[in-house]
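help with this record:
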Amino acid sequence: SNHLVILSSSAKVFMSHNIPYPFRQNTDFLYFSGFKEPGSAIVLHTRAGKKLLDFVSAVFIPKSDSYVERWEGPKTDIDGAIDLLGVDSAHYMDDLETFLHSYATQSNEFSLWYDYTAEHFSPVKEIVQNFLAGHSKIRCESPRYLIQRLRLIKSPPEVKLMRKTCRTASEALLEVMKFSHAPVLESHLHAKMEYECRIRGADYLAFPPVVA
């Protein structure tokens, strides 16, 4: 049978009107795409009537916003997304629902894989819900379990990166231990840990430090 997988990026979440929380990408989306920008989606699908391994990849990204880019810098547009990500095609997010309807027309039966339970602020969730409302016979299942099983097997570059992150964390912890003395506060230790990791090349901490 035919299959279509939708992997959604994380969405930008705001503390207040125009102040965002620090952005962290959906790790499953990052694993498949390497793309670090919010509000996007990767679609992997089989070709109708072809073998399972004959699949096509497409990325869906938000349209550029000159006001946002003035503050945050330039974003990837569809012209550069194909070369950057190595996908077969690039589209704007506004076209995702039309893309799904078109695929449903070409493929009489297919399984839709989308983890809609994990998305709280993603525009993809509403698009998928609207699509399924018009295609009640299409079964939707979460690919999370299968993706996690796939991610258990690490490639040599992943092993190299894991070793680097362990070394970074170890060196940072040693510096925090040296820094840990009265009258240093717990908030200072938190800040010290993040600082030492970031100056060693980390983008962010894997989780908030537990300082007690």
